[in-house]
């Protein structure tokens, strides 16, 4: 730095590139399944069971998703992403309940009120529309200028406010839209003096009596929302003028349902119960036709006080297919419409990078049929009864939801195979596989069923768990206190808790399971040992120790990737390196760049070793980083490639896994090789 002796401005060059490598989160789960409500094929970030209930409703007999997410949070999970699936069939697919608000004359539809998300739950919604006047003042017609009105106060009036003016109770009121407000002179202008400030509703006032004051009131609407007779929400200050900030369709638009932010770094905001669709431009006009420069504003354009019940909601479960859970691939040159139609279920989770484990429990669904729905008998009062005080009415029975189909074994395998392929192609998450219903309940073949299912998979990116878990069922259909659900929610929750408490290198096993009453199959030591050697992670009930996961293996035949914590540790390292070494792309391939890259990776791996995530009595035994002339030959430099060889020794087992990082001309690529302890590449 130059000596600061002479007063003046000095410029210094500072390298603002952050070359540090930091670990990424590995406790975020992703779930795909059936829910009572919520957006379809849209990933929603959640951080509590309460948030799930707000967005997707309560547990339902038609799916396991709600049970799985609750098990995740009960077992220590802190954050997950949820995607609701439903059929998009034109005739029997998912649909939102809705109702239409008509004008005072009943001839023109003004707004369509719809449930914020599709499903039969919307058929329980009812709304009540009430006209309100939040801003009121008095005015005069002194001066005789019909382009404005002097008022006692301009508080509550803004540009675009719909206003009712009246001088007597018998005369018909006059409706105008405020073009501008002057708080200094206390004037409400009805016509703009500049063409650029004009509104389509600008109109002069008709002649008024100068001797009488003018009552000036704003016109807004309040919509009260009830679900099953219980008040749920109140939306105030909605206006009919599209230019007003509180325009109804804009205030209750569908875009307000989920606000996950960039990659969902924040949890979703509380969802709305209803939304409003614009059917016509307020005050006489078709939204598809250009509005005239002046529109007549009459009482027939306003909304009358009314009460409506929403109808027509469908869950879209009867026609549910396996493709609804996994979506389909698309080409880079496909249109946005084609991509949106294929980005469904599991493919929707592909847009979220922070997920580290994925499960699809509802492909195994065995729906529980709700009790028969029948209307309550009419109430006939007893003329001889002595009690004259009317008793409160009994709540109306809820309309039952749709029942999804039972998927075949071929469909289950198709979905799980696609789930495994999804994880292998992304290389940043693992698949949690649930054993099929029949094998998990021991109805056929005993252990042979789950053993045969295990033979269908060979992947280092997936883990299989057996049997299912029985949990307390809030529904208690047929007076059953518990319900058997797939174990993936409990497993993901224990993984998340272990990762945060100890680290990803710790096997997510041998800790008590929470919110678990029993297992569907009782395992002994012999059966456990047989399944464990096959790579099937067993859940067992141990005397005095409760229910625990006693296995942490993948379904890979490669001994280098036998253990799940090893696979997840390497995934975390690879993802951290991928994110933290992007600065090296397009940097000069010289000694300085190589040394900076080597030192940043070296410091990161040393930190992991100090935390106990890598094995070895010294750093030399735990890892190595090589980025010099030995692996960056002149031929590599000539084609714009920078290579870094990294070797790490996972804590369990004591085996090396090599991650090779190289920089091409315009991208960063990562590959991996397994090596023996002696260093020979296998």
UniProtKB/TrEMBL annotation:
Disordered: region residues: 249-269
Positions of the Tail sheath protein subtilisin-like domain: 426-554
InterPro entries, sorted: Phage_sheath_subtilisin (IPR035089), Tail_sheath_C (IPR020287), Tail_sheath_structural (IPR052042)
Pfam families recorded: Phage_sheath_1 (PF04984), Phage_sheath_1C (PF17482)
Boundaries of every Tail sheath protein C-terminal domain copy: 557-661
Gene3D superfamilies named in the record: 3.40.50.11780
Family the UniProt entry places it in: Belongs to the myoviridae tail sheath protein family.
Name of protein: Phage tail sheath family protein
Organism: Gemmatimonas aurantiaca
